[in-house]
Amino acid sequence: MTARFVAALETISVEVSEHALEAYEAALGRICASVGFFKDETTGRWRVEGVREAGAREDDLRGALAIAEAVSGEAATLARVSTEADGWLARSYAGFPEQRVGKRFVVRGSHLGGERSVAGRITLALDAGVAFGSGEHGSTRGCLRALEAVAHRKPGRILDLGTGSGILAIAAARLLRRRVRATDIEPWSVRAAARNARANGVGPLVNALLADGWRARALRRHAPYDLVLANILARPLCRMARPMSVHVTAGASVILSGLLASQFRLVLGAHRRRGFRLERTLREGSWATLVLRAAPQMRAGMVRVDGVGHAVDPGCVR
Predict the structure, then answer these.
(1) Does the structure show a pLDDT above 50 at 75?
(2) Which three-class secondary structure string do you get for 156-223?
(3) In degrees rounded to 5, what are phi and psi of residue 131?
(4) Residues 90-99: pLDDT tens digits?
(5) Is 57 exposed, middle or buried (0-12, 13-18, 19+ CB in 10 A)?
(6) How far apart are CA 248 and CA 219, in angstroms?
(7) In what order do the strands lie in the sheet with 206-210?
(8) pTM higher than 0.90
(9) Which domains does the chain have, with CATH numbers?
(10) Which of 18, 79, 143, 175 has a CA between 20 and 30 Å from the CA of residue 115?
């Protein structure tokens, strides 16, 4: 358990429609160290909840919720519940058993003790207190399965956008024995990713960086990439389609997740307009993971229309 959770904690939550889920998950994610979302199958509504230090960053929280309301057009009532630190950690432990993902990986909480060897599988050890990216979330599981599917291409330059806990960067480094650039916009995520990489024996292979997506010069300077993993949210994925096409190699593999199955066509359409083609879709519950391939013989950033390169991007439309 890190010092981040020594102070008194509280759980904050909102209930929203699927349309507003992404906006409110992003809002709570800016404030809370741990965020989850759960669907009520009876009503179809989603509960978004996060754990934070009690009373921390109240002004930031109000601002984030106001932005979520403006973006989604849906107001939500914030609920607060005091959370005992010991009780929260115990629930995290109970909800984070050892998990087998795909054919190659085992995700194991650090609270379970030393690494247990599982024949033919790579063990990924993580703190049970990490947020998005513990291996139990459907989007993370989908990305790990997709990584297995493209590993045979032996990519050289690898990028993990929105690394969170670092699980995907660590998995790629251990599976492929290649260097991975792992970026996030949150400083605590960058620190957690670096710490987890060291704990998994790939500290020298995972370069964790504070970066705001493709705006960061450090990412662009090391392009083009042969493999990009991006487990973030649907709309940011759409906005990244154009710079993605400019900064990957011909035939590169691109793994996108963090999107609900209902957002599949939205994200796919934005990338098809940039010349990417769909290789496969992986489903884990309500979540979808897309495995895309960059065009093999097109100039980066172009799409082909009736045999002619076309550079106009109509954007990510609903």
Answers:
(1) yes
(2) CCEEEECCCCCHHHHHHHHHHCCCEEEEECCHHHHHHHHHHHHHCCCCCCEEEEECCHHHCHHHHHCC
(3) -90, -145
(4) 454 445 567 8
(5) middle
(6) 11
(7) 206-210, 180-184, 158-161, 225-231, 248-260, 287-293, 277-284
(8) no
(9) 3-93 (3.30.70.260), 137-310 (3.40.50.150)
(10) 143
